[in-house]
Amino acid sequence: MPATLAPPETADVADLKDHAHQLRRLMMEMTRGKGEGYLAQGLGIADTLAALYFHELRHDPANPAWAARDRFLLSTGHYSIAMYAVLAASGYLDEDELPTYGLNGSRLPMSTFDITPGIDIVGGSLGQGLGQAVGMALGLRLDGSPARVFCEFSDGELDEGSTWEALMSGATFGVDNLVALVDCNGIQADGPVTVAIEPVADKLRAFGWDTREVNGNDMQQLTDALAASREQDGRPKAIVLRTTPGFGVPTIMARPRAHFVRVSDDEWGDFMEELESNR
Length: 279
Ligand SMILES: Cc1ncc(C[n+]2csc(CCOP(=O)(O)OP(=O)(O)O)c2C)c(N)n1
Fold this sequence. Notes:
Elements: H1 13-34, E1 36-37, H2 39-56, E2 71-74, H3 80-89, H4 129-142, E3 149-154, H5 161-173, E4 178-184, E5 187-188, E6 191-192, H6 200-206, E7 210-215, H7 219-228, E8 237-242, H8 250-253, E9 261-262, H9 268-277
Parallel strand pairs: 2-3, 3-4, 4-8, 7-8
Antiparallel strand pairs: 1-9, 5-6
Helix pairs in contact: 1-2, 1-3, 1-9, 2-3, 2-7, 4-5
Bound molecules: thiamine diphosphate.
Protein backbone atom coordinates (compact mmCIF):
# COMPACT_ATOMS: atom_id res chain seq x y z
CA MET A 1 0.00 0.00 0.00
CA PRO A 2 1.68 3.24 -1.09
CA ALA A 3 1.79 6.01 1.47
CA THR A 4 -0.60 8.25 -0.44
CA LEU A 5 -3.84 9.95 0.33
CA ALA A 6 -5.02 10.10 -3.28
CA PRO A 7 -8.62 8.88 -3.66
CA PRO A 8 -8.76 5.12 -4.30
CA GLU A 9 -9.52 3.97 -7.80
CA THR A 10 -12.83 2.32 -8.66
CA ALA A 11 -13.53 -0.60 -6.36
CA ASP A 12 -12.79 -4.10 -7.61
CA VAL A 13 -15.94 -5.65 -6.17
CA ALA A 14 -15.11 -9.26 -7.08
CA ASP A 15 -11.69 -8.97 -5.47
CA LEU A 16 -13.15 -7.41 -2.32
CA LYS A 17 -15.70 -10.24 -2.09
CA ASP A 18 -12.79 -12.70 -2.18
CA HIS A 19 -11.13 -10.80 0.66
CA ALA A 20 -14.35 -10.92 2.69
CA HIS A 21 -14.60 -14.65 2.12
CA GLN A 22 -11.04 -15.10 3.32
CA LEU A 23 -11.82 -13.09 6.46
CA ARG A 24 -14.76 -15.42 7.16
CA ARG A 25 -12.50 -18.45 6.76
CA LEU A 26 -10.02 -17.00 9.24
CA MET A 27 -12.79 -16.27 11.75
CA MET A 28 -14.14 -19.79 11.46
CA GLU A 29 -10.69 -21.18 12.17
CA MET A 30 -10.25 -18.86 15.15
CA THR A 31 -13.52 -19.95 16.69
CA ARG A 32 -12.64 -23.54 16.02
CA GLY A 33 -9.56 -23.23 18.23
CA LYS A 34 -11.58 -22.25 21.28
CA GLY A 35 -14.90 -23.85 20.31
CA GLU A 36 -16.75 -20.59 20.88
CA GLY A 37 -16.65 -16.90 20.08
CA TYR A 38 -18.46 -13.85 18.77
CA LEU A 39 -18.48 -15.40 15.36
CA ALA A 40 -21.91 -14.40 14.02
CA GLN A 41 -21.27 -10.64 14.26
CA GLY A 42 -17.83 -11.14 12.74
CA LEU A 43 -19.22 -12.98 9.73
CA GLY A 44 -21.78 -10.18 9.37
CA ILE A 45 -19.25 -7.31 9.40
CA ALA A 46 -16.63 -9.08 7.20
CA ASP A 47 -17.69 -7.32 3.98
CA THR A 48 -17.38 -3.89 5.60
CA LEU A 49 -13.90 -4.61 6.93
CA ALA A 50 -12.77 -6.00 3.57
CA ALA A 51 -14.11 -2.88 1.81
CA LEU A 52 -12.26 -0.67 4.29
CA TYR A 53 -8.88 -2.38 4.63
CA PHE A 54 -8.53 -3.45 1.00
CA HIS A 55 -10.03 -0.40 -0.65
CA GLU A 56 -11.24 2.68 1.17
CA LEU A 57 -8.76 3.20 4.01
CA ARG A 58 -5.48 4.92 3.23
CA HIS A 59 -3.09 3.01 5.46
CA ASP A 60 0.24 1.26 5.29
CA PRO A 61 0.72 -1.94 7.34
CA ALA A 62 4.49 -1.61 6.87
CA ASN A 63 4.33 1.83 8.48
CA PRO A 64 1.53 1.59 11.06
CA ALA A 65 2.58 4.81 12.83
CA TRP A 66 2.18 6.87 9.63
CA ALA A 67 0.60 10.08 11.01
CA ALA A 68 -1.56 10.79 7.98
CA ARG A 69 -3.13 7.33 7.86
CA ASP A 70 -6.89 6.98 8.03
CA ARG A 71 -8.06 5.59 11.37
CA PHE A 72 -10.51 2.76 11.90
CA LEU A 73 -12.00 2.55 15.38
CA LEU A 74 -13.95 -0.55 16.31
CA SER A 75 -16.29 0.52 19.09
CA THR A 76 -18.02 -2.84 19.54
CA GLY A 77 -15.10 -4.54 21.27
CA HIS A 78 -16.49 -8.05 21.12
CA TYR A 79 -16.36 -7.89 17.31
CA SER A 80 -12.62 -8.33 17.86
CA ILE A 81 -12.56 -11.62 15.96
CA ALA A 82 -13.31 -9.73 12.74
CA MET A 83 -10.58 -7.19 13.49
CA TYR A 84 -7.97 -9.89 14.07
CA ALA A 85 -8.94 -11.53 10.79
CA VAL A 86 -8.57 -8.32 8.79
CA LEU A 87 -5.41 -7.24 10.64
CA ALA A 88 -3.83 -10.59 9.77
CA ALA A 89 -5.06 -10.56 6.19
CA SER A 90 -3.70 -7.06 5.64
CA GLY A 91 -0.33 -7.63 7.30
CA TYR A 92 -0.53 -6.13 10.79
CA LEU A 93 -0.60 -9.53 12.48
CA ASP A 94 0.87 -12.91 11.68
CA GLU A 95 -1.81 -15.46 10.77
CA ASP A 96 -0.03 -17.96 13.04
CA GLU A 97 -1.16 -15.90 16.02
CA LEU A 98 -4.86 -16.15 15.20
CA PRO A 99 -5.49 -19.53 16.91
CA THR A 100 -4.65 -17.82 20.25
CA TYR A 101 -7.93 -15.85 20.00
CA GLY A 102 -9.50 -15.66 23.46
CA LEU A 103 -6.85 -17.79 25.18
CA ASN A 104 -5.14 -16.74 28.41
CA GLY A 105 -2.08 -14.62 27.75
CA SER A 106 -3.00 -13.98 24.12
CA ARG A 107 -2.59 -10.57 22.44
CA LEU A 108 -5.97 -11.31 20.83
CA PRO A 109 -8.52 -11.07 23.65
CA MET A 110 -12.22 -11.68 23.07
CA SER A 111 -12.83 -7.96 23.43
CA THR A 112 -10.41 -5.47 21.90
CA PHE A 113 -7.59 -4.06 23.96
CA ASP A 114 -4.73 -1.77 22.98
CA ILE A 115 -2.15 -4.55 23.32
CA THR A 116 -2.90 -5.67 19.76
CA PRO A 117 -1.02 -4.16 16.81
CA GLY A 118 -3.47 -2.21 14.65
CA ILE A 119 -6.05 -1.65 17.43
CA ASP A 120 -6.33 2.03 18.36
CA ILE A 121 -8.94 1.98 21.15
CA VAL A 122 -10.12 -0.29 23.94
CA GLY A 123 -13.62 -1.40 23.05
CA GLY A 124 -15.08 -3.58 25.82
CA SER A 125 -17.28 -0.97 27.41
CA LEU A 126 -19.90 -0.33 24.77
CA GLY A 127 -20.94 3.17 23.72
CA GLN A 128 -17.49 4.78 23.97
CA GLY A 129 -16.15 4.56 20.43
CA LEU A 130 -18.03 7.31 18.64
CA GLY A 131 -17.12 9.95 21.21
CA GLN A 132 -13.45 9.07 20.81
CA ALA A 133 -13.86 9.16 17.04
CA VAL A 134 -15.37 12.66 17.12
CA GLY A 135 -12.46 13.88 19.26
CA MET A 136 -9.93 12.21 16.99
CA ALA A 137 -11.53 13.66 13.84
CA LEU A 138 -11.56 17.10 15.41
CA GLY A 139 -7.93 16.79 16.48
CA LEU A 140 -6.83 15.68 13.02
CA ARG A 141 -8.70 18.56 11.45
CA LEU A 142 -7.13 21.06 13.87
CA ASP A 143 -3.72 19.62 12.91
CA GLY A 144 -4.51 20.18 9.23
CA SER A 145 -4.30 16.44 8.58
CA PRO A 146 -6.05 15.00 5.51
CA ALA A 147 -6.69 11.74 7.38
CA ARG A 148 -10.22 10.48 7.95
CA VAL A 149 -11.67 8.54 10.86
CA PHE A 150 -14.01 5.58 10.40
CA CYS A 151 -15.88 4.33 13.46
CA GLU A 152 -17.95 1.17 13.63
CA PHE A 153 -20.58 0.89 16.34
CA SER A 154 -23.51 -1.46 16.83
CA ASP A 155 -27.27 -1.17 17.12
CA GLY A 156 -26.81 -2.18 20.77
CA GLU A 157 -24.71 0.96 21.25
CA LEU A 158 -27.69 3.03 20.12
CA ASP A 159 -29.14 2.12 23.54
CA GLU A 160 -26.37 4.20 25.11
CA GLY A 161 -26.83 7.93 25.74
CA SER A 162 -23.12 8.51 25.17
CA THR A 163 -23.59 7.52 21.51
CA TRP A 164 -26.29 10.15 21.02
CA GLU A 165 -24.14 12.77 22.76
CA ALA A 166 -21.34 11.93 20.34
CA LEU A 167 -23.76 12.19 17.41
CA MET A 168 -24.74 15.68 18.53
CA SER A 169 -21.15 16.81 19.06
CA GLY A 170 -20.08 15.39 15.67
CA ALA A 171 -22.73 17.51 13.97
CA THR A 172 -21.93 20.55 16.13
CA PHE A 173 -18.25 20.40 15.16
CA GLY A 174 -19.05 19.54 11.53
CA VAL A 175 -16.44 16.78 11.36
CA ASP A 176 -16.85 15.76 7.74
CA ASN A 177 -13.64 13.72 8.05
CA LEU A 178 -15.58 11.21 10.18
CA VAL A 179 -17.61 8.27 8.86
CA ALA A 180 -19.81 6.36 11.33
CA LEU A 181 -20.51 2.76 10.33
CA VAL A 182 -23.58 1.66 12.26
CA ASP A 183 -23.84 -2.12 12.30
CA CYS A 184 -27.56 -2.84 12.55
CA ASN A 185 -27.50 -6.63 12.69
CA GLY A 186 -30.79 -6.78 14.59
CA ILE A 187 -29.46 -8.65 17.63
CA GLN A 188 -28.24 -7.84 21.11
CA ALA A 189 -27.06 -10.08 23.93
CA ASP A 190 -30.36 -11.87 24.59
CA GLY A 191 -31.83 -12.00 21.09
CA PRO A 192 -33.51 -9.50 18.76
CA VAL A 193 -33.23 -5.75 19.37
CA THR A 194 -36.26 -4.69 21.39
CA VAL A 195 -35.39 -1.05 22.19
CA ALA A 196 -37.14 1.39 19.81
CA ILE A 197 -34.03 2.51 17.94
CA GLU A 198 -35.70 2.66 14.51
CA PRO A 199 -35.83 4.41 12.15
CA VAL A 200 -32.07 4.65 12.63
CA ALA A 201 -31.22 6.42 9.36
CA ASP A 202 -33.93 9.07 9.82
CA LYS A 203 -32.75 9.71 13.37
CA LEU A 204 -29.14 10.15 12.25
CA ARG A 205 -30.29 12.58 9.54
CA ALA A 206 -32.30 14.51 12.13
CA PHE A 207 -29.11 14.71 14.22
CA GLY A 208 -27.34 16.40 11.29
CA TRP A 209 -25.44 13.46 9.79
CA ASP A 210 -25.20 12.91 6.03
CA THR A 211 -26.62 9.37 6.11
CA ARG A 212 -26.86 6.42 3.75
CA GLU A 213 -28.37 3.01 4.36
CA VAL A 214 -27.10 -0.14 2.67
CA ASN A 215 -27.23 -3.90 2.73
CA GLY A 216 -23.97 -4.41 4.64
CA ASN A 217 -23.41 -7.76 2.96
CA ASP A 218 -23.57 -6.28 -0.55
CA MET A 219 -20.08 -5.20 -1.63
CA GLN A 220 -21.27 -2.92 -4.44
CA GLN A 221 -23.60 -1.02 -2.13
CA LEU A 222 -20.88 -0.79 0.51
CA THR A 223 -18.21 0.59 -1.79
CA ASP A 224 -20.66 3.05 -3.38
CA ALA A 225 -21.64 4.38 0.06
CA LEU A 226 -18.00 4.64 1.15
CA ALA A 227 -17.15 6.57 -2.03
CA ALA A 228 -20.04 8.96 -1.38
CA SER A 229 -18.79 9.48 2.20
CA ARG A 230 -15.67 11.23 0.88
CA GLU A 231 -17.64 14.42 0.24
CA GLN A 232 -16.36 17.32 2.37
CA ASP A 233 -19.49 19.39 2.97
CA GLY A 234 -19.24 20.20 6.66
CA ARG A 235 -21.45 17.30 7.76
CA PRO A 236 -20.27 14.09 9.44
CA LYS A 237 -21.10 10.96 7.45
CA ALA A 238 -23.01 7.88 8.54
CA ILE A 239 -23.62 4.57 6.81
CA VAL A 240 -26.30 2.36 8.32
CA LEU A 241 -25.26 -1.22 7.62
CA ARG A 242 -28.02 -3.81 7.55
CA THR A 243 -25.99 -6.95 8.15
CA THR A 244 -26.97 -10.55 8.77
CA PRO A 245 -25.35 -12.30 11.74
CA GLY A 246 -23.61 -15.46 10.55
CA PHE A 247 -23.62 -14.31 6.91
CA GLY A 248 -22.19 -17.04 4.69
CA VAL A 249 -23.01 -19.94 7.03
CA PRO A 250 -26.77 -20.65 6.84
CA THR A 251 -26.87 -22.79 9.98
CA ILE A 252 -25.46 -19.91 12.04
CA MET A 253 -27.73 -17.43 10.23
CA ALA A 254 -30.71 -19.54 11.32
CA ARG A 255 -29.77 -19.55 15.01
CA PRO A 256 -32.27 -17.41 16.95
CA ARG A 257 -29.64 -16.49 19.57
CA ALA A 258 -26.41 -15.89 17.75
CA HIS A 259 -24.75 -13.34 20.06
CA PHE A 260 -22.22 -15.90 21.30
CA VAL A 261 -21.68 -18.99 19.18
CA ARG A 262 -20.57 -22.36 20.46
CA VAL A 263 -19.76 -25.01 17.90
CA SER A 264 -19.07 -28.61 18.77
CA ASP A 265 -16.21 -30.51 17.14
CA ASP A 266 -18.50 -32.58 14.92
CA GLU A 267 -20.25 -29.46 13.51
CA TRP A 268 -17.14 -27.77 12.12
CA GLY A 269 -16.82 -29.76 8.92
CA ASP A 270 -20.40 -28.97 7.91
CA PHE A 271 -19.98 -25.29 8.75
CA MET A 272 -16.85 -24.96 6.66
CA GLU A 273 -18.59 -26.71 3.77
CA GLU A 274 -21.50 -24.31 4.07
CA LEU A 275 -19.11 -21.36 3.98
CA GLU A 276 -17.33 -22.65 0.88
CA SER A 277 -20.56 -23.39 -0.98
CA ASN A 278 -22.00 -19.93 -0.19
CA ARG A 279 -19.26 -17.74 -1.57
C1 LIG B 1 -21.46 -0.39 28.67
C2 LIG B 1 -21.71 -1.86 28.50
N1 LIG B 1 -22.89 -2.37 28.91
C3 LIG B 1 -23.13 -3.70 28.77
C4 LIG B 1 -22.21 -4.52 28.21
C5 LIG B 1 -22.46 -6.01 28.13
N2 LIG B 1 -22.72 -6.44 26.75
C6 LIG B 1 -21.78 -7.09 26.06
S1 LIG B 1 -22.26 -7.46 24.51
C7 LIG B 1 -23.78 -6.80 24.77
C8 LIG B 1 -24.82 -6.82 23.66
C9 LIG B 1 -24.78 -5.61 22.84
O1 LIG B 1 -25.47 -5.73 21.61
P1 LIG B 1 -24.76 -5.31 20.29
O2 LIG B 1 -23.72 -4.32 20.64
O3 LIG B 1 -25.80 -4.95 19.31
O4 LIG B 1 -23.95 -6.58 19.86
P2 LIG B 1 -24.35 -7.93 19.08
O5 LIG B 1 -25.44 -8.61 19.86
O6 LIG B 1 -24.79 -7.59 17.73
O7 LIG B 1 -23.10 -8.68 19.16
C10 LIG B 1 -23.88 -6.28 26.03
C11 LIG B 1 -25.08 -5.61 26.59
C12 LIG B 1 -20.98 -3.95 27.78
N3 LIG B 1 -20.02 -4.69 27.21
N4 LIG B 1 -20.78 -2.62 27.92
